[in-house]
Each structure stands twice: as C-alpha cells, then as structure tokens.
Automatic annotation (TrEMBL):
Residues 14-400 form the Major facilitator superfamily (MFS) profile domain. The chain crosses the membrane at residues 49-70, 82-100, 106-128, 140-161, 167-187, 220-242, 254-279, 286-306, 312-332, 344-368, 374-395. This is MFS transporter. Keywords: Membrane, Transmembrane, Transmembrane helix. It is found in: Cell membrane. SUPFAM superfamilies: MFS general substrate transporter. It comes from Microbacterium memoriense.
Length: 413
C-alpha cells in the first residue's frame, strides 16, 4: 500500500532494523523462558498451583489490556520512546522475576514483564510501517521469524543453564537482549535531537481523534481481529494442552508428545518467512486463509477420528494456522494509510486476539474435567477454524480502514 520504490534495507535505517530484531527476540524469549524450568523453581521456593495458573493466563490478558492502552500512550510519547519504555519494563520484569524470593513476587515480576511485552507487541508493526514502508513483507517476515526462533530457543537452553548456574541466572540472562534492544532506539532519538537543534519546531499533525473507537464500526478491523483470534487462540490452546491431548488420545509417551509440540512450534518459522512474500509479492491473501482453514479442519478431524494413524501429520497440519499470525501483522500495515490508523489497528487486533486466547486454555481444562474427554475441546478448536471464512473474505479486499470509514462516514479526519 505504498508508492515508494524499494531501497537497500540498511540505507539510513540500520539502527531501526537492529532495534526491531532485538525487540522481537526480547518479546518472545521473555515469555518462553519460565515454563521449562518451573520444576527447578518449585524445588527452591513454594509456587502454589493457582500461581502457576495465573502465570499461564497472564500473557494473553496483559497483551489484551496493553493493546488497548498503547495507542493512547503512543500519541503522548511516540513510537520510539514507547519501544524504549517497553524494553526497560521488560528488563525490570526479568530481573525482578529472577531475584524473587517467593511466589508472590515471582507473579508480580511476571505481570510487570508481560506489561512491557504487551506494549512492545503493539508498537512493532507501526515501527515497520514507518521505517520500512517499501519492505513491509520482508521486515514482517523477519520480525515474525525472530519471534518464532525466540519461542523455540529458550526451552532448549533454559534447563541446561539452570542446571549449571541456577534457575535465577537462567531466568535473568534474557534481560541482556532487552538491554541491547534499547540501544538502537536510544541512539536514534539522540540523533534526531541533535539534528533538530537550531531548527524551528515543526508543526506536529494531531492524530485523528477517537481512532480506536472507530474501528468497532469497520468490517476490515473485525476481519483482522478474527484473524488474530484464530491464530493466537489455536496456538495458546495447543501449547497448553496438545501434549496432554496426544498422550491421552494418540497413545504416545510424554517425551514424544514434547517432541511433537516442538514440531508444532517449529511450523511457525517457515510460515513466518513465506506468508509475507505471498501477500506482498503475489497478493494472494485468500489462499492463505483457505490453507489455514483446510489444514486446521483436517488436523482436528484426524485427531478425532484417527489419532494414532498419522499423528505427526495431524500435528503438522495443526501448526499451519499459525501462518495467520504474520498475515495479521502484514495486513495491519497494508490495510492502513495513516500512522495513527496503523497504531490503533495494531492495538485493536491484538487486544481481541489475546483476550480470546486467554479463555480457550481454561475452557479446555474445565470441559475435560467435566467430561473426561477431549472431543468437545477439539470440536471447539475446529469451530474456531471457521472464522477463516468471513475473515478471509473481508481481509482479501484491497482497501484500508481509512477507505472504509470514508466510504461509510465521510472524511477520516
């Protein structure tokens, strides 16, 4: 959705590139570094089951809450300052969690950490739109691939590091990446300050008022929110319960179920690279929704009807709807014309997505406790996949939220 010609990726924006990569790594490694060493933590300090449950529910709830407030914060402080603030909060949360003497402070550090991550989640897509308008597909692919790698690496190294140096060091060491993420954005702000010295203050264009409230009336905003709901909810539900489901219905060992969960997560890496290319180069948005729908429904049907026959195939297919995550990220940029539209749409989409993502794992647990089976939870997951139909139809339209508003209600500003 830009008329700019592509220019070299590094020219004049190397700091932004480095900043986006390290912010992305910090956002996801902060989330993925606790659960692998929870047993080591519980061996040292008492962590009740209800605290563990709250820690598991905290990420999507914090992401939803701060997705709502971030657009207002951005209008006040700007994207770059907000990115720095988010990383500083992440650092405080990681360090606080690592030195926590009891379960209460461990939970508090986790909440602080996820507040920073929630803000960071929202600001990165508009940062990509601002600094890389000619490379949105490439940069979104790099961003989402970095998220996938950062979710994959901590489970591999957290336990060995905890065994060698203790769980506190294993938790706290990820703060180094957040510290590095601050540096390029701080340098950019300082460079802009120096360049602006002696220059008359520019007239700042005020963002359109109540942009976030307008999105509730726009089909495109709801289509992208549904896209994020489908992706984030299926991922959180799978990470929470897929190993247990596979042990119960597919007759696999706990070790094999862990490997299959890693396979599920690894599906996000190639999809993060390929999906932005399909959208930006080939402009085939509908085929991505169709692929997610068919793969998701086939996976659920396979797990219900023949769980032991081709378990690996069902897990791989279940991982394909993860590709709708980079779809949402790219379309947040390509379905907006204005800066404030991109920020508001990012917050709107992620808030609804993570809010639903927080409810599904709990619903799975309650239904399984009541029925002793996984049939209804899997049918719920299959029903969720049907969101790809209306969402794909609307999201495939090459129009922006500003276009929709102007068509329905008059001038955007």
């Amino acid at each position: 959705m830009t008329s700019e010609h592509a220019r070299p990726l590094w020219r004049g924006r190397a700091l932004a590139l480095v900043g986006i990569v390290f912010v992305a790594f910090s956002l996801r490694s902060a989330v993925a570094s606790l659960s692998p060493i929870l047993a080591e933590i519980q061996a040292d300090i008492a962590v009740p089951a209800w605290v563990v449950g709250l820690i598991g529910t905290a990420p999507p709830l914090c992401f939803a809450l701060f997705g709502i407030v971030t657009p207002a914060l951005e209008r006040r402080f700007g994207l770059e300052r907000l990115a720095i603030t988010a990383m500083v909060v992440v650092i405080l949360g990681l360090v606080g969690r690592a030195v926590a003497p009891d379960a209460g402070l461990l939970l508090l550090g986790t909440a602080v950490l996820f507040a920073g991550v929630g803000v960071g989640n929202v600001v990165v897509p508009p940062l990509i739109k601002r600094y890389f308008p000619d490379r949105t597909g490439l940069m979104t692919g790099l961003y989402s691939a970095t998220l996938a790698v950062a979710a994959f690496v901590p489970p591999l190294v957290a336990v060995p590091v905890a065994d060698a140096a203790g769980w506190r060091f294993s938790l706290g060491m990820w703060a180094v990446f957040a510290v590095v993420a601050v540096i390029p954005w701080w340098a950019m702000l300082q460079r802009e300050r120096v360049a602006a010295e002696g220059v008359a203050p520019a007239v700042v264009e005020e963002p359109a008022p109540r942009v976030l409230g307008r999105l509730f009336r726009l089909p495109m905003a709801w289509a992208l929110a549904a896209t994020f709901v489908l992706s984030s909810t299926s991922v959180y539900a799978s990470f929470a319960w897929l190993p247990v489901i596979l042990v119960d219905i597919a007759d696999v060992s706990h070790a094999t179920a862990g490997v299959l969960l890693a396979l599920f997560g690894a599906m996000g890496i190639p999809l993060s690279i390929l999906v932005p290319i399909v959208i930006t180069r080939w402009r085939r948005v509908g085929i991505l929704y169709a692929g997610a729908l068919i793969a998701g429904l086939t996976a659920v049907a396979g797990l219900l009807l023949a769980p032991t026959t081709a378990t690996v195939v069902w897990v791989v297919l279940l991982g394909i709807p993860q590709g709708l995550f980079p779809v949402a990220l790219v379309l947040i940029q390509r379905r907006t014309r204005t800066h404030e539209g991109a920020v508001a749409l990012s917050g709107f989409v992620q808030s609804f997505g993570y809010l639903f993502a927080a409810t599904f794992p709990l619903s799975f647990a309650l239904i399984n406790d009541a029925t002793g089976q996984w049939t209804i939870p899997l049918l719920m997951l299959g029903t969720l996949m049907l969101l790809a139909v209306p969402a794909g139809i609307v999201a495939s339209r090459a129009r922006t939220i500003e276009d929709e508003w102007e068509h329905r209600h008059g001038a955007w500003r």
